[in-house]
């Protein structure tokens, strides 16, 4: 079973993602801050991480780099989550090790399509 972590200071975004993705083939875990996410990744690395591009405590690019620097047999797929299409932010995230981006707010078809495009979920 795949594990997906949503890192977002908005509990609404985390709950919507959990409702859409949570099921028999995916477990969704939530982190309300970048520091929480780092602790959780160090303890048990998820397969997929979706990181809010505007976290209050840690810049998304720094969080991506820190996750990539961790020793783990799992190399997670990482998406940056943005409220608007910002090519510069997407490119910085990709240079840091992200595979792509997700625009929010998202709905079920948008989220599932983004995961399909990365071959994360069926």
Low-confidence stretches: none
Query: What is the overall silhouette?
Result: globular
Tell me the major beta sheet: 5 strands, parallel
What pattern of helices and strands is seen along the backbone? EHEHEHEHEH
- Which structural category fits the helices and strands? alpha/beta
Strand order of the largest sheet: 2-1-3-4-5
Mean pLDDT across the residues is 93
Number of helices: 5
Taking all Cα atoms into account, the compactness measure Rg is: 13 Å
The percent range for strand residues is 15-25%
From the N-terminal CA to the C-terminal CA, the straight-line distance is 13 Å
Compute the number of strand runs.
5
Helical percentage:
40-55%
Organism: Mesorhizobium australicum
Protein name: Response regulator
Describe this structure in words.
- The chain has 122 residues and is of the alpha/beta class.
- The longest helix is centred in the N-terminal third of the chain and has 11 residues.
- It comes from Mesorhizobium australicum.
- This is Response regulator.
Summed up:
This is Response regulator. It comes from Mesorhizobium australicum. This protein has helices spanning 11-21, 34-43, 60-69, 87-96, 108-117; strands at residues 2-7, 26-31, 48-52, 77-82, 100-103.
């Amino acid at each position: 079973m795949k594990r997906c972590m949503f890192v977002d200071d908005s509990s609404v975004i985390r709950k919507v993602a959990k409702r859409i993705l949570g099921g028999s083939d995916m477990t969704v875990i939530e982190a309300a801050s970048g520091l929480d996410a780092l602790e959780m990744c160090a303890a048990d690395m998820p397969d997929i991480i979706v990181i809010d591009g505007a976290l209050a405590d840690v810049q998304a690019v720094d969080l991506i780099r820190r996750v990539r620097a961790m020793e783990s047999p799992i190399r997670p797929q990482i998406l940056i989550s943005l409220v608007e299409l910002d090519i510069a932010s997407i490119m910085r995230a990709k240079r840091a090790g992200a595979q792509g981006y997700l625009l929010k707010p998202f709905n079920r078809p948008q989220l599932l399509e983004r995961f399909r495009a990365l071959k994360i979920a069926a």
